[in-house]
Amino acid sequence: MRTELNALSLDLYALTMVQGYLAHDMHQTAVFEFFVRQQPRHRNFLLAAGVEQVLDDLAQMRISSGELEWLSRQDGLTQELLNWLRGFRFTGEVHAMPEGTVFFANEPVLRVTAPLPQAQLIEARVINRLQFQTMIASKAVRCALAAPGKQLVDYGLRRAHGLEAGLFAARASYLAGFHGTSNVQAGRQFGIPLYGTMAHAFVEAHDSESEAFEHFATANPDRVVLILDTDDTEAAAKKVVALAPKLMKRDITIRGVRIDSGDLAEHARRVRSILDEAGLMDIQVFASGNLDEFALQQLVSESAAFDGFGVGTSLATALDAPALNCAYKLQSYAGQPRRKSSEGKATRPGAKQVHRAVDRNGCMTRDTVSLESEASPGGNPLLKHLMAGGERTASEIPLALAREYVAGQIDKLPPALRSLDPTDLFPVTVSESVTRLAATLDAERAGSAGSPGNRPFDATNKQHRLKTSGEPA
Amino acid sequence: MRTELNALSLDLYALTMVQGYLAHDMHQTAVFEFFVRQQPRHRNFLLAAGVEQVLDDLAQMRISSGELEWLSRQDGLTQELLNWLRGFRFTGEVHAMPEGTVFFANEPVLRVTAPLPQAQLIEARVINRLQFQTMIASKAVRCALAAPGKQLVDYGLRRAHGLEAGLFAARASYLAGFHGTSNVQAGRQFGIPLYGTMAHAFVEAHDSESEAFEHFATANPDRVVLILDTDDTEAAAKKVVALAPKLMKRDITIRGVRIDSGDLAEHARRVRSILDEAGLMDIQVFASGNLDEFALQQLVSESAAFDGFGVGTSLATALDAPALNCAYKLQSYAGQPRRKSSEGKATRPGAKQVHRAVDRNGCMTRDTVSLESEASPGGNPLLKHLMAGGERTASEIPLALAREYVAGQIDKLPPALRSLDPTDLFPVTVSESVTRLAATLDAERAGSAGSPGNRPFDATNKQHRLKTSGEPA
Q: What is the reported pTM?
């Protein structure tokens, strides 16, 4: 039952390339950067998430003797590679945006500086870790913006792409402003508050809905949230009204009810009014079933009756944009900047930094991507030195603190970015030095190789919003 | 680095409901069934996958002492629940379609028969395991149908929703007809053939592309597949032509080249012709980058130059339909059939079986969903008795055999279902006994409770194709 997601969760080509580097003594320092190429259409900004998991992985990554034994039986892998893997320990540097940082397309989010074979080996893992939580956090924050003041709970475990995805979706959504999750493991592993109600099956297993409600309440006196839509939502609400005084005598309070199907706003209005007429103003009304940020926004606008929402599938799968067009690309090797100029996938060379300018209210006004080596363009540098010599430079930021950091940034977002609808792009400037460096590299390459492949780099401030793409590439 | 995906990967409400069942001695036998409510628009059929993982999980599921200790510190959980969890061991029966079975919406895929608390506890896990691999296998088989005779390799690890998702996406796609994966862990854990080429970074790290190609080839003489599009694809192909005789002298054969950007068909044609003119007819041409089943179909129709494809993001995330509208629902308790009649989410009561009729060529013609207890409507029963008393009735079906089983079924698919475009729905009949039982239950419930919630059950043969939905419900 325990799936060991170990060091071999990597692409075979990482091993063959490392084998090539080792055979040719290419151990000098490489710089790779992770970035998102294009924001999905309905993401006015993104939230960096999973940085902490990357740091954990890099600090702990070892190849076990069982893995080595298995590798030694595979064709084509040299003893030199196996020896190197046996001694593997990540010894490099990581600069990254702290967990929860707001960012935009084409900004480096995480930069690895390490001997080339090390930096190459970890490619798939870095992308896998950063993409998923970033994608979920960036979806979850939209739900939070759509339903301000409402309790939001992650219900996504069952539809997440695996148990691990369910776990990290709970983490990323809590980071982004959700109040908790239904996922017990996420409560245990990350200290996220747990929420739970009851399923229709509990009602169905009983001979009557009233009996089911009473059984549930007496067995869970501190957590009485009753599901209303097993058969008839308003009829169930009336059973709640009948049950409440009976429970009150036993000092049991009904905290809430949940509606999971039908016209949620209409049902909520009727249920609210049934409860209010019975003086049960403190019973909260929760809704679930097919919700995303647009549904939340509409429900909140249609009815004041909702106290909170459970959001599942659309959150845990980032249903409208279940992949980010992102990459982890070589920016320099042995002190020399590098780039590829593949059609539509050219990269900006050199180790880079992002500076964020804010106005006097602390509201973000502009980002600048510049070379780490050039003078600061002003503003706050976003990439921090989080790992040195393969070890964290400071202890992990507690998730609750990172969540506050997110909330603080959302407060200072330019109002247009808070909209659910696509808006004008936030200004991200690329420094002249970066643009010049790209042009110089292309000219050198064209000159030295006679290659016709010199494509002028598009240095304008475009944040493409295209369909997601990308393979091991 | 190892993520333990343990027994607490469940929804809190499973614990509160079990607490309710225990408090009221509801230990009698429950029957739950997993089914897909609606096929996504572009899925003419689905492939059951992940059944083997469900069986593994059920056989091995225990609550550890560490988990129990943590649970004991949470509010509201009774000693009775904790004791029950301490002794937890799944002792029930599982009937399911064997790994890789073709199925359709509203057919039970897996049926659990167990004491109610046990069957309830495992809900999220059963859905999580079955949904993901079923979704990926059902996407992968479309790629296989789109590119017959071409080598298909899973490249999805980096964009999968976590490392576990990458692992099971490799498994599900291999089951469905892919030839292998880039994911080394999937090779180790499931014996899936591994494929790998090289990344642009390998070229960029070198001062010249020719040197990079030569370094890679000499270091990996058995696996020489060279990437062409770091700068200029055709220029790179000419470097391959220049390198080939040099390598030949060292007994190294270039197996293939990969193109990852630009107009793939056009590049492939030109590269093929450059290679052929140099007599290098045996070098294979692979493509990757943003591919899905439609792109594969088009590329294959535009150019005969391709030998194989790497498919990543669209496969490992099931990009066009990244969730299935599926559920695990109570069908009977204590010998009494049960259903819910929630709006749009009514279930069919009773323990059910699916029979598949075939014509004299073995081609599937009709499925019938009937009560397990009624006489066979003819055809082959699809749900097999795979677990008894919490133990497998037979050893796990080797993945390679399940893959052959899939291939055999695909050969016998009605031709219309093989199309990538939505087609007429395959006929799935629901037996009169099921329909009558649903009506009887509704009438009884309406009669006994005076509930106006009696919604006639729609027993016509509809396979809705709507957007995915569903929450813990």
A: 0.94
